[in-house]
């Protein structure tokens, strides 16, 4: 099963990557920029595998670039808040 097929697994995967980026000293600004790039890639190249990803994809498709950056930033916050350290 792909990590994209289960929402909780996807969030955990993102959380692990976020932790790694922060441990490497990546700034929040750079993390948010990367999150926007990942979101753009997923929206253009990957078919959503669950309801949550479909909602994000639909929102992304109608959002302006600034709104997409906000969505990406909120996703970063979501996985930060879901990380239990």
Automatic annotation (TrEMBL):
Q: What is this protein called?
A: DUF3243 domain-containing protein
Q: Name one Pfam family in it.
A: DUF3243
Q: Quote the InterPro entries the UniProt record gives.
A: DUF3243, Uncharacterised_YmfJ, YmfJ/YflH_sf
């Amino acid at each position: 099963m792909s990590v994209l097929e289960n929402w909780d697994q996807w969030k955990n995967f993102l959380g692990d990557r976020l932790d790694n980026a922060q441990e490497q000293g990546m700034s929040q600004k750079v993390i948010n920029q990367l999150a926007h790039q990942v979101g753009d890639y997923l929206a253009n190249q990957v078919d959503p595998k669950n309801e949550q990803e479909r909602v994000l994809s639909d929102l992304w498709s109608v959002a302006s670039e600034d709104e997409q950056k906000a969505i990406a930033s909120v996703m970063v916050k979501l996985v930060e808040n879901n990380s239990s350290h």
